[in-house]
């Protein structure tokens, strides 16, 4: 999904900083692809669960491109453990990446936006599970619920500075995090049947939403979440 976001915002004219953790193979390939198409991009290693790494990530963007206009907090992990089976290590790992990363990513971006002037946009990639319980994946749901309130509260706090904070809540998307479901034909048929549009989303569908929200076309959207789930949540809730 991150790769799709990068492609969409680059196509819209943005210079891009791609974060990676550990091996840079995928990030370097994405940078090479973007540059071959005439876009500007760099890759930076940063662990989003470490606020100092997020500060360094923002600094790298400013050093390379002169300013920061949009921050997309997209990193996410899950353990798929129920409440009774979740260890402290599981909890800390999920909350560290999903919620702490988004919190301090928003903070680091906001400091830069205010310092340079002109406002800015923070986009938090959440999930339908910020509202919709998923038994057996409790820490993940807690992290996404926290992102929901981070988006709303930060959007209100930062609005006077001209900074918008918007959440994007995908439903089922064709990404590695859903590989176990996609490898089971029975589960896939049930999932597709539960989605009013009849299919899981391709990552590009989420990338296009992010590109729109980052643009001036969405200049009056803040402190809320845009749900992109093919109608899954409403159908499943019986609404």
From TrEMBL:
Keywords: Oxidoreductase. InterPro entries: NAD(P)-bd_dom_sf, Sc_DH/Rdtase_CS, SDR_fam. The keyword Ligase does not apply. Gene3D superfamilies: NAD(P)-binding Rossmann-like Domain (3.40.50.720). It comes from the Bacteria. Transmembrane segments: none annotated. Belongs to the short-chain dehydrogenases/reductases (SDR) family. This is SDR family oxidoreductase. It comes from Actinotalea lenta.
């Amino acid at each position: 999904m991150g790769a799709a976001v990068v492609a969409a915002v680059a196509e819209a004219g943005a210079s891009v900083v791609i974060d990676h953790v550990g091996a840079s193979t995928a990030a370097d390939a994405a940078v090479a692809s973007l540059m071959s198409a005439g876009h500007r991009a760099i890759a930076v290693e940063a662990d989003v669960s470490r606020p100092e790494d997020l500060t360094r990530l923002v600094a790298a963007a400013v050093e390379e491109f002169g300013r920061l206009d949009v921050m997309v907090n997209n990193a996410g992990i899950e353990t798929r453990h129920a409440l009774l089976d979740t260890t402290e290590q599981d909890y800390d790992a999920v909350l560290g990446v999903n919620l702490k990363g988004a919190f301090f990513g928003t903070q680091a971006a906001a400091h830069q936006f205010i310092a340079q002037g002109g406002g800015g946009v923070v986009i938090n990639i959440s999930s339908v599970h910020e509202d919709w319980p998923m038994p057996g994946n409790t820490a993940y749901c807690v992290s996404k619920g926290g992102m929901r309130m981070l988006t709303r509260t930060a959007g209100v706090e930062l609005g006077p500075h001209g900074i918008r904070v918007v959440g994007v809540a995908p439903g089922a998307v064709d990404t590695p995090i859903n590989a176990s479901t996609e490898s089971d034909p029975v589960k896939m048929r049930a999932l597709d049947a539960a989605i009013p549009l009849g299919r899981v989303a391709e990552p590009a569908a989420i990338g296009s939403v992010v590109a729109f929200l980052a643009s001036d076309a969405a200049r009056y959207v803040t402190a809320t979440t845009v749900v992109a789930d093919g109608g899954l949540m409403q159908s499943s809730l019986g609404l």
